[in-house]
Design a protein that fits this description.
Layout: E1 8-14, H1 20-33, E2 38-47, E3 51-54, H2 56-65, E4 72-74, H3 83-89, E5 103-105, E6 114-115, E7 123-124, H4 130-142, H5 158-164, H6 167-175, E8 176-182, E9 189-196, E10 203-209, E11 233-235, E12 240-242
Parallel strand pairs: 1-2, 2-4, 4-5
Antiparallel strand pairs: 2-3, 6-7, 8-9, 9-10, 11-12
Helix pairs in contact: 4-6
Length: about 250
């Protein structure tokens, strides 16, 4: 495959629960290409109540074994362009973290015109609102998920293109490390942190309200290693710098 110019393989609908199938595919790739081909794994299982589901055990094995097993691994259901799907996606990431060469795959980004289905496969706008799209990009960046675009690029809106090409979001996605969830003030909220591999002075925080009601999300800066008396708070999605925060 490498000799044909193949650089990406997705192992979809992987049924094995012990990872032996995934390991065999990885070993075959390494023996042929010297580990130059990216391997993406999507484990599948059958839920008696809800049809197909992601094989969480296989994803956990891939996460524990790092790039020896896979470069990317899906750990959530298919993402759709609606808030209920997005809000259900983010909490599922709590048990996982990214490392160099080993990233959780949060699924494709449903921005821009999307295929509306038959007849005619007409295009339709994404159902995600502007704040929801910013939240998606923020979480995909801080969790270092691959940024795979799922819409029709030639007709994508200017504000979506600005998010997709935002240099600070791309820097966080590419150069962040030690990405992991952190405790928040409410079970209806979620937060993650990441650090910059380029400078010791940059910490990234992501927070989101997962409920349908207004909520206050509180994170103690000292709990993530930030001195609140000597820092600036910057929204990388909006490219906006706010006055120095307090200690939370």
């Amino acid at each position: 495959l490498w000799g044909w110019g193949v650089g990406f393989i997705k192992l979809d609908w992987a049924w094995d629960t012990d990872g032996l199938e995934v390991r065999a595919v990885r070993e075959a790739i390494v023996s042929e290409s010297g580990n130059e081909i990216v391997l993406s794994v999507n484990g599948i299982c059958q839920d008696p109540n809800d049809g197909w589901c992601v094989n969480a055990n296989l994803s956990a094995i891939a996460a524990r074994n790092g790039s020896e097993w896979a470069d990317m691994w899906r750990i959530g259901a298919d993402l759709w362009d609606r808030w209920s799907s997005l809000s259900a996606t983010i909490p599922n990431r709590g048990a996982y973290h990214s490392e160099p060469g080993n990233r959780p795959d949060n699924d494709m980004i449903p921005f821009g015109p999307l295929v509306g289905g038959s007849p005619g496969y007409t295009l339709r706008p994404s159902n995600l609102t502007a704040p929801e799209r910013r939240s998606l990009m923020g979480f995909w960046a801080v969790s270092q998920s691959p940024l795979m675009f799922g819409g029709y690029l030639p007709q994508t809106r200017a504000d979506d293109l600005a998010l997709l090409t935002n240099p600070e979001v791309l820097d966080l996605n590419s150069n962040g490390f030690l990405s992991r969830p952190i405790n928040t003030s409410s079970p209806q909220t979620a937060a993650w942190r990441s650090e910059s591999s380029m400078t010791s002075r940059n910490f990234y925080l992501f927070g989101i309200n997962l409920s349908e009601l207004p909520l206050e999300l509180t994170v103690k800066l000292e709990s993530v290693g930030v001195d609140g008396t000597d820092c600036m708070l910057r929204d990388v999605c909006l490219l906006y710098t706010s006055p120095s925060p307090r200690d939370s």
